[in-house]
Amino acid sequence: MSDTTTDPRVTVCAAESAGRPVSELHEPRWVGLGEGTEVRRLLPSLGRRMVGAWCFVDHYGPDDVAAAAGMQVAPHPHIGLQTVSWLLAGEVHHRDSLGSDQLVRPGELALMTAGRGIAHSETSPAAHSPVLHGAQLWVALPDAARGVAPAFEHHADLPVVTGPGLRATVLLGEVAGARSPGRVHSPLVGVDVVAVAGAAGSLPLEPDFEHAVLTVSGAPEIDGRVVGPGTLLYLGSGRRTLPVRAEPESRFLVLGGEPFAEKLVMWWNFVARTGAEITEARERWQREVAGGPADTFGPVRGYEGDPLAAPALPPTPLKPRGRER
């Protein structure tokens, strides 16, 4: 998925050493995406830039798309990150410049590693379900891996961990000995948890990780705090278990990872370390959009329409400015 805003802000990120449990509730900001899709953006935010290597979190829907085109995001580029597409309802057709052509359904992991450069599109198929609901997540690649060759993985069979009233699907990383087949480049975890009505249980956590919870439906009580849909509860680190209660049936994502020590510059759909890298990536993409040599990203074959042009760079230099605004 793309950040399609016409005035993307520069984001410089560096994870602080959490080291202790906290409880910070973050409300989303609404952002337009492609044609007719509006999303709740939870990361990056004013109060929280990253959770482990997770550096971008959008939650969209549930949207009634029975009489609409649904998701329509034209080809766009990425560098220095992995995209994690997770559907709760509906279908999305993924195409990329590697030649991948995959229809993604609920419960299936679409994991794209941009590495040194990739382009992709995401669209609802012409014949699609009446409801579209999901999350789009980015994982920042550590410096040692950000120049890897681009790749795409699709996993329809993911491990599941169950407990009293809880069912947890492991998107990435490992929980209670169950490991996702998705390839990661830093210690992290992503879990989709369904809590039945009346559930009272707990989920094991890695105490060295920092964690956050994104509620996608219902209103679970997480560590004694009710977390409404579309909000993100940052939990810090130092926790071995996550207490969960649910009066109505609830569903939420648990995202976590080892605090990310490197500073990042995020702009539009790029994750880099310097403003010069961002500028070069933008120039390369614009040359490809104009019909020049596809030496970094490449065309997305099978998509009918024009790719997204990169927005203008901000008037001030893109350079690290620290975590705080």
Automatic annotation (TrEMBL):
Domain annotation Pirin C-terminal: ranges: 191-287
| Signal peptide span | none
Annotated region described as Disordered, given as residue ranges: 287-325
Residue span, Pirin N-terminal domain:
38-139
- SUPFAM superfamilies for the chain: RmlC-like cupins
Quote any Pfam family the record assigns: Pirin_C
Q: What family is this?
A: Belongs to the pirin family.
- This protein is called what? Pirin family protein
Q: Which species does this protein come from? A: Pseudonocardia ailaonensis
The organism's taxonomy opens as: Bacteria, Bacillati, Actinomycetota, Actinomycetes, Pseudonocardiales
